[in-house]
């Protein structure tokens, strides 16, 4: 009977081996997959906005946060099962670089292409949702604008720490999804950590590339000037600290930690643990 999951040590080896794709994958393919990831996270974000816009009035803020996180998890499910390049999940490439399978230059090149592709996909999707006029439903636009404004008003350190906590969970979701050997297992692996980070109020850079521009577009359409909600604040006050936090959280707490525990032995890379030796 086939194994239903990989052990943590086997999972790290699989992640390291998978990271070698950046050596052969074309930049154009990476860009297309990055655009798709921006779309997929956008689907989760818009669904979370619609589902949660009046839930707090009916069931309370805690239940509203839980519902928002539950439906938002669709985004990572699409990324993992359908295949796409998501910047936050690609923090796991640090394991491959640490183990010498790819260079840090390859990692940085991938990150630059992927984050730009994710941004483009998120902006395109925000524009499509704006053009759909689905925001005319009572209360939805106001809720979307409020979400964006709150994110732009976070202090730098708060946004940084929330970004770290967020991608710690996102990368654990990727880790568990890699360990799962079937589709239901991968879906559950995505659901619980993503639900947890959204319900907790942590900050995800790619989701915010959708949330904040959507709020800006809707505020502009209504002729509203919302304190703190500007394009400058979007990039400087939110995306900059949140992205840095996402990198730190994913690289330190997941990619480095599990590489160190399972692949680094006595201060050097274990020859026995090399990905190519795994069967």
UniProtKB/TrEMBL annotation:
Transmembrane segments: 30-51, 63-87, 108-134, 154-175, 187-207, 239-261
Any one GO CC term of the record: plasma membrane
NCBIfam families membership: fnt
Entry's localization field: Membrane
InterPro entries: Aquaporin-like (IPR023271), For/NO2_transpt (IPR000292), For/NO2_transpt_CS (IPR024002)
Coiled coil: none
Pfam families, sorted: Form_Nir_trans
Superkingdom field: Bacteria
Protein's recorded name: Formate efflux transporter FocA
PANTHER family: FORMATE TRANSPORTER-RELATED, FORMATE_NITRATE FAMILY TRANSPORTER (EUROFUNG)
Keywords in alphabetical order: Membrane, Transmembrane, Transmembrane helix, Transport
Gene3D superfamilies cross-referenced by the UniProt entry: Glycerol uptake facilitator protein
Biological classification of the source: Bacteria, Pseudomonadati, Thermodesulfobacteriota, Desulfuromonadia, Geobacterales
Membrane topology: Multi-pass membrane protein
Organism per entry: Citrifermentans bremense
Keyword Cytoplasm on entry: no
Family: Belongs to the FNT transporter (TC 1.A.16) family.
GO molecular function: formate transmembrane transporter activity
């Amino acid at each position: 009977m086939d194994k239903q999951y990989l052990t943590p040590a086997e999972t790290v080896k699989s992640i390291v081996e998978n990271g070698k794709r950046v050596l052969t994958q074309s930049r154009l393919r990476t860009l297309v997959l990055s655009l798709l990831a921006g779309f997929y996270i956008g689907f989760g974000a818009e669904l979370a906005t619609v589902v949660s816009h009046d839930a707090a009035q009916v069931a309370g803020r805690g239940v509203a946060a839980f519902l928002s996180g539950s439906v938002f998890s669709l985004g990572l499910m699409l990324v993992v099962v359908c295949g796409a390049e998501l910047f936050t999940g690609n923090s796991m490439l640090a394991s491959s670089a640490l183990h010498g399978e790819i260079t840090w230059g390859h990692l940085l090149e991938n990150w630059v292409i992927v984050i730009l592709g994710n941004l483009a996909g998120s902006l395109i999707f925000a524009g499509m949702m704006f053009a759909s006029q689905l925001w005319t439903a009572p209360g939805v636009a106001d809720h979307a604008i409020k979400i964006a404004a709150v994110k732009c008003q976070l202090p730098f350190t708060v946004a940084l720490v929330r970004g770290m906590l967020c991608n710690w969970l996102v990368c654990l979701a990727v880790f568990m999804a890699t360990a799962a050997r079937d589709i239901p297992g991968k879906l559950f692996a995505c659901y619980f950590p993503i639900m947890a980070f959204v319900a907790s109020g942590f900050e995800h850079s790619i989701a915010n590339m959708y949330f904040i521009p959507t709020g800006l577009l809707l505020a502009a359409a209504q002729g509203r000037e919302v304190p703190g909600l500007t394009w400058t604040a979007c990039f400087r006050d939110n995306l900059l600290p949140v992205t840095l936090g996402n990198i730190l959280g994913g690289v330190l707490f997941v990619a480095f930690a599990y590489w160190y525990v399972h692949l680094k032995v006595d201060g050097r890379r274990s020859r026995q643990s090399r990905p190519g030796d795994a069967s």
